[in-house]
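On clarity, I found the account of how folds are encoded harder to follow than it need be. What matters is that the chain and its backbone geometry are given together, residue for residue. The format is easy to grasp once an entry is in front of the reader. For illustration, here is how one protein appears when written out as sequence plus structure tokens.
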Amino acid sequence: MQTTYHLLSAQELSTEILDSIKAKFKSKPITIIVKENEDEIELSTEMKSILNDRLKEDEATYLTLNESTDRLKTSIFIS
């Protein structure tokens, strides 16, 4: 049996969570693994600046996913 708890910060860890784990698993052996959320990316100042510059671009020049893919396919087959 497996249970996953997703917390926004370690500060949310409470005795209620521990009591819940104790009630669910009773005297069975368990393993507790604590890891930092790897899905979150911290942007550097440079990355934020690049994104802000992109927001100022003319939307009329944007490429759709299909247009980008077609251009990549064309350039791969031409090479």
Observations:
- The chain is about 45% helix and 0% strand.
- The CA atoms of residues 21 and 30 lie 9 Å apart.
- The chain has one domain: 10-36+45-78.
- The radius of gyration is 24 Å.
